[in-house]
Design a protein that fits this description.
1% of the residues lie in helices and 35% in strands. It has one helix and 31 strands.
Amino acid sequence: MKHPRAAVLFFLTLPGMAHPAAAQTGFPAFASTFAPVTGYYAGNGAVTASTVPETSEWQSGYEGAPAVSVSLSNPHIAMADVFGNVFIADKASHAILKVTPDGLLHTFAGTHAFPYTGAAPSYAPPAGFAQDGPAPATSLNLVACNGLYVLPDGVVYIYDAGSHRIRRVGLDGIMSTVVNDPDPNWLPSGRGLWVSPAEDLIYYTQEVADLSAPIPPTSINHPPLGGVVKKWTRDGGIKAVTAYPANPSPDNLELVNPGNIDVSPITHKLYVTDRAEDNPARSCVYRIESEAANPLIGQSVKTVVAGLSSGGTQDGGLATETYLNQVRGISFTREGGYFICTHKGGQVWFVDGETAEARIHLFLHGRGKNDIQYRGPAALPLPVTTVECDSQPRAVTAAPDGSVLVVSNDSGLVRKIKKAAPPPLPVIQTLQKPSPDSPFQLTWTGLPLESYIVERSPDPSAIPWETAGVVTATEVSASFTDTAAAGMTRGFYRLSLPR
C-alpha cells in the first residue's frame, strides 16, 4: 500500500527544454557557487565510540545540545530535507540523529542501545526480535544503522544493517519496517540506499559473508566474499540486481565492497561505488545499464564511469583515467554531474557529466587514511596524528538547497559546504479554484530538479505560514494541487526554497 502524504503533487514537463547538464559552464564556474569552507556542521572530533558494537557512547547531555559540541559515534552518512534539517546515521550509537536549522541535535530514531545479548556474528536478529513497529521511532531499537535516505519532504528511510531491515519514518514520527531481508549471508556492513520519490522502488547494497571462514580475532563477523546490489518493489519483493549465485565466491560476485549508490535524475540509471578495499585496482564507479536477468547464473551489464585506472590521480582529466583510492560515496546534483568521495584518499571529487568524456575535478582535499584518529584495538596499529573532517570520508550528499554534506567516520565530523547564494525564487503564475468544492491549483516556472516548499495561509499577515507540500520540478513548469484545502473559500500561497 502506498504511504499517504499530506498533499497530492503533480509535475508538468515542457517539451524541448534542455537540462542544465546540457549546458555545463565548466567546473571553475560551478565551484565558485559555493561559499568558502569554514568549520564543521556537527561533531567535535573527540571520538570516543568503542569498537564493541554493543557499547553506545551516547550521553544524555547530548540531547538538544549544539551539534558541534557532541561526540559522534562512527557517523556514516548525512542527508538533508528541504526544511534545513540534517539527518545523520550514527552507526555506533545505534540511532539516527537530527540537526535542526538552529544547530541543535536531537535523537530522531533508535534508542542508543544495542538490543542483542551475547556474541552476534553477522548480527543475525534473535528469535522474537519485535522491533518492526509501527511505533514512535525513538521507541524502537536500531542496530548498527549504516545508511539512510531522506526524501525532500522529510520522510526518512534507514538502512538498519544489524537487523537486516530497511525502516521508514513518516512525517508523523512513526517508524515501520519496509524491507526484512532474511539472507543468511548478510553482513552488517552494507550502506548504499536509494528510494524512489513514489516510495515503490528501493535499491540497496549488501556485502556477502563467507560463512565457511572463521571469524577473525579482530572482528565479530565472518569475512566478506564480495557484494551485491538488491532492489525491493512493492509488488515483487526482494530481487538481486547484480550476480548472486547460490554458492557465492569472490570469482562470481560482481562487486568487491559496494559502497553508496544513487540514481541519476537525468538518465535514471543506477550508479554504484565499489571501494574494493583489498583490490585497489578494482576501485571504481559503475553505472548499471541493465540488471542481471537471472542473478543466479548471469551478471548485470555495467559501465565503468570513474576509476579503475593505475595512471595516478588526474585533476581535470578523464574520470575513467583517474585512480580513486577506495571510492565510497556518490551523490548527483541537480545541475548535472555527481560528487564522489574516496575513503582512503580522503578526497571529494566532482565528475562533470555522464558521458565517456566526463572529467573529474578535485573539490575537497583531506589528509587520507594515515592522518586520522584511529579507534581500533591495539593489535591493529595505525598512525594517530590529526583529526580532519575530510579524512576517511564515508559519504558525500548534495542537499536540496545545493549545499554539500561530507561525513568523516573515523574523526566523527560532518562538514557542510554551503552555496554562496540561493537560486532565484519563482513567482506563482496561476492560482485557481475551479469550483467551490475543488482544491486550489497552482502553477509556476522554476528550475529543473529544484525543490520548492509550498506554503499556505488564510491571511497573508499570519505568522508562521503553514507548509502545504513539497514539489520537486522534473523540468521547468511545476504545479501543485492542495487537496487538503478543498473546503477553503479563500487562500494565500507562496513558494520558498530549501533552507
